[in-house]
Each structure stands twice: as C-alpha cells, then as structure tokens.
Amino acid sequence: MTKGYMDILKKRGLQLATVVIVFVVCIFFSQSHISDTFEYKLYDYYLNITADRGKPSDNIVLVLLDQESLNWAQNERNWSWPWPRSAYGELLEFFSLAKSKAVCFDVLFSEDSVYGAQDDKAFAESSKNYGAAVQAIHFKKNPEKNGQIDSTNELDNFSIETQPINIIRDSARLCASVMSVTDADGVVRRARLGVPYNDAFFPTLGISPLFIQEGFSNTTADVTEIIQKYQLPLLKDDTIYLRYHRSIDKHIPYNASQILQSLDAIKTGNEPLLEPELFEDCVIFFGFYAPGLFDLVSTPLQKNYPGVGVHVTLLDTILNNSFIREVPYIIEVFALALAIILSSIILKIAQSKRQGQTVFLLKIFFFFVINVSIFFLGSLVLFYCGFYLKTTTILLGIVLSFLVSLSISYTTEGKQRRYLKKAFSQYVSTAVVEELIANPEKLKLGGERRELTMFFSDLQGFTTISENLEPQELTALLNDFLSLMSDVILKSGGTIDKYEGDAIIAFWNAPVEVQNHAAVALEAALTCQNILSAHEQAFTKRTGGRPLKMRIGINTGIAVVGNMGSNNRFDYTMLGDAVNLSSRLEGINKLFGTYTLCSEATKNACEKATDKIRFREIGRIAVVGKSQAVTVYEPFFAEDYKAHETTYTQFKSALDTFYEGDLDKAALAFSSLNDPVAQKYKALCERYIQEGITTEQGIIRATEK
Questions:
Q1: Which end of the chain is less crowded, N or C, counting CB atoms within 10 A of the terminal residue's CB?
Q2: pLDDT per position as a tens digit, 598-631
Q3: Which residues are bridge partners to 452 per DSSP?
Q4: Phi/psi at 302 (nearest 5 deg)?
Q5: Would strands 239-241 and 190-192 be described as parallel, antiparallel, or unpaired?
Q6: Count of Cβ atoms closer than 10 Å to residue 35 Cβ
C-alpha cells in the first residue's frame, strides 16, 4: 500500500473521528440541558419574528378593569377599591343579555366581600342565572424529596393554594386553574391543560370555555376528549406551546366601565356605548389591568404581560389551530448529524485547493455563515409553519466541527505553512510568502508573462552622504528610510523585488493580482515622496545637513515574473524591456530635476482608473539602449496639481514650442517660468543653440542611465 494512499486513509479516518466526537459531545450537551438557556432565547427570537403570523380569533373578547374604570366608578358610583361583588354580577348580567358563551374570571375571590354577605350572595345569584361563569382557583405543586413528589399518587402532585369562597365557587359553571407554567428563566412559553386533583380534573382557565361548550365536567375523561377533538400537540410534560400575538391589544380590549355604562343605558332605555350583539357567541376573559392591581407575567414578547393574556393566548392558539409542534427527537438527531457531516465536507472542499491563509480563512468564514444560515433559516421557516426544531445543538455542532477541523488543519498543514513563512519572510514580500504557502509547487525555477507596474527608486547623492557617516549611523539611517518606504509599498499590495543599497525595486500585480495596479503604484510612489518630505528635517540632522531626496521611475508593461536563479538559490523577480525602461526613467529624473517620472503607458492606465492623480508632460526621451523615444510624465496628486496648474499650462505651451524646433522662442518661454523643469529646458535650449544642435520633434537623447 503506497504512502499516498495511507495518507488519504489517515485523513479520512481523522475526518470521521471528528464527526463522531462532535456528534457525541452535542448529544451530551443536549441531554444535560446545558443548552436550555440558549434554546429559550432562540425560541423567543423565532416567536418574535413570527408574532404577526395570524389574526387573533374574533370569538375571544378581553375585558379589563383598568384605571379608567376605577376613576369612573369612583366618580359615578362612589365605589372605592375593592369594588362590590355585585359589580361583577352586573358584568355577567350584560353578557347574559349578549348571549356570550362564557365569562372567565382571572380573579381570585378568596375572601368574603368587605360589603357584607349580601354582596357575595348577589354576585352568586348573577353567576347562577348566567350559567356559564368560570371562577379561578390557584394550585401549587407539592414539595419534592430527592427530585420526586412526596406521594405515590399522581393526583396528589398538586394542592389548592387559593380558591373562591364557597358561595361563589358553588355558583360557577366551572372552577379553572390559573397556575402558570414557567421555564427555568421565569418566562411563560407553555400552558398546562389543567390540574388533576382529588379524582377530578380542573381545566386551565384558557380551555374552560371548551369544557362548557362540549357540556363537560371536571373529569380526566373529558380532557382526553378535548385533546382528541382539537388534536392538541401535547409535550412530554402534558403542556402546550403558546402562539403569542405581538400585543394583548390585538384582541381589542374593552374596559369594565364601558360594559357597566352600557348595561345602565339599556336598563334606562337609552343608547348603550356597546351593543350586546358585539359579544354574542364570544368567550369573555376578565382580568385586572390597573396600577397596583396588575397580574403580570413574563412572556417571550413582553417582560410585563397581563396574566389573563396567557389564558387568552391558549384558547386563541387552539381555536386558530396555530399550534407549535416539536419535531420528533429522531429528526433532531438526524438534523444534527447532517449539519456536522455537511460542515466536515464543506471544510474538506475549502481545504482541497491550496490558497493563502487569509483567503482560506475568508472561505472558511463564508462557508460557516452559509451553513449556519441554512439550518437557522430552515428552522425559522419550520417554526413559521408550526414545527419547532431545536436548533441550539445543531448550531453548536456546526461551530465545533469548524473549530475542531481548523485546529487539526493548523496542527498538520499549519506546520508546513509556519516553516515556509519562517524560511522566506525575511527575504521576500509577505504577498510572495502567502503565494508560496498556498502553492508550494511554485518553489521551482520558472516564470510567467504578466502585465506589471514597475517601481525603481534611488536616493540622490547617497554616495556622498554615506562617506560622511559611521557604518552604524549609515545602517540605521538606511534601515529607517527603507522601512518607511517599504511599509507604503507593501500596504498598497506591491511586491518588493529587492533592495540594492539605498535603491528599492518593486512591482504590482504579481504574484497576486492588483486591480488598477498602475494607479495604485503611482499613488504609493507619491505617498512615499510625501512621507520622505515629512521626515526631511529629522533625516537632514542625521546626514550632516544633506537632505534625503528620492528619484522614482515607474513603467507599466509586459514582463516575465517568477522564480529565477539556480536550483539551490533563486529570487522572485522580473525581467524584460519594460523593466529596463522603468529603471531608465528613474535616472531621467536627473536630466530634468524631477523626482518622480512615469511612462505614457502608466499614465494612460492610471487615468482610466482614477481622477485622483494628474500629470504634466515632461518630454520625449530616447533612453540609453533605445532608439525609439518615449514620452515621460510627472505625476501629482490632484490637489497638488491644481495649486500650480497655471505654471504647468504655460510649461506645456513652451514645451510644444520646443517640440516644433523653435529653440529661441522656447528658451524665452521657459525662462519666464519659476519652475525647475522649465529652467532645465532653458539651459538645454541655450546649449543646443550655442552648439548648433537641432532637435527632431523635440526628442532628447539621454547619454547616461
């Protein structure tokens, strides 16, 4: 069996082991309920996103005793708090006229009325006459011992904490439980259908109207029929998820004073505020909603939510068939396995093609986001459709898969990356190092033809400067200068070919592609000049009063670029006529007293990409070794060009005269300009006139490199 085949098996085995380990960890995480807190938050987010999914049931009406009702009762009936029980009897009288299906009181009448026994009796009589009143009873869970209810009978798991006084309880059609189901974080996301107690079953207030509608009593058999008829998707603990609406106001709440005023108007033959027909065949839920009377709970949508709203939401969820069903656990496990396997496959694909570390990490991040989005959005769509897929464990599986795979990649393939970076970062640019890391096969001789923008620079008079400095001072000065310039070049995406003493040779668009490389290179060159000017005073002190001035030549063209040298030692460099021209342009600066020159090819490419850089034509030059002349230009940042635009325009006019061969007129035009290049041309014209030299279309032949 070959070594390559063994390596493949080893990698596949490692990949499979990663999948299995991550899967086992996630299952443990899920079963240990560590993820519950995160799952609660995710569930709440889903519920918020889908809160406007459906319309509230028109058959549910909310009546609240609010501050407006308290104020009205104080002013109109001289009622202080608490209200007399007969007031609630009047409410029942109105809803009896309206032929409402049921009135569910989310109020605990657990003590005798402060207005006397007759007041309780009046309320009880109204309740009997109405025949469909539901009173609240509050249960509590019995204490546990060692995690178990201290009873062998399941019906003894609950005991009554608060209940209505006898006369009110006996007059009700049903007594219903108002005990909330809160999760570990105190939020009410689910509701219990009821409480078994003493061989009876007390339905939750929210489903008590269904018991009345079906003619049921307080038996376990009755709740079983309700479950079957409405196909209630019960969870393991016999609870049901609540599909909350955005606000309790979606049910258009009425206040108690409106009902009482309407009843008064009907009794006196006047027009009521609310016609009884509005409430025909409706289920009425009554609760308190005034400062100091709030019965508040925390829900996924609101921290302070009226407690009666939980019961309203339960009935609304059933009537609208807007259930939230948990998907079977086997599907959760399958989705988890699929997410982990898919993550592993995606990572394998991302690693299959060698690339730079930055590109690799960006691809990993992109695939990670895509994978998370697939399962997150998928579970959100399922939730909207009424199916709840617990996603926290799945997302954890995706995260762990990526982290473990990246760790393995770092410890295996990362060794080669670190070796290459350490071996070559001292000699070549960071871009080249990344290219070699991504493609180690490029560590061989050879090159490719490619359009580059090439940069050659040299310090003016550096030989004289170096002769007057100690070796240590010279080295420190040169290092500081080269560091400043190199930072600009590298940050712009350039590749530094080499340093030759004080000279810098660099290029753009290899080994990595650089968009608009001509414009980028020119901007980097001008930035280098600005930085050098900013440090001029500090450098001048170190050179004994001699300023550091840098000449730069830039050209754009086709060159051969790649690894060149011997089999044992080679450099990533460039060759070609376009490279030589860039070098010659650096030297041409001496002829004109300029410090940055570029070719026409660079100028044209730059102007197509940006208007941040402007140019002035300097002349037509036949460089050493070339018979054909090239037009050279001096680049400027646009704002710098505008500051001297008048001078440059006049210079162009004088240059055109020089091209025409009228040296006397050109010399006169150049002499009128306060411009170093113009003064160079003036001297050149005078020399040509004195020596009887004629120009051919203004071409100047350089005599030195």
A1: N
A2: 999 999 999 999 999 999 999 999 987 777 899 9
A3: 557
A4: -145, 140
A5: antiparallel
A6: 19
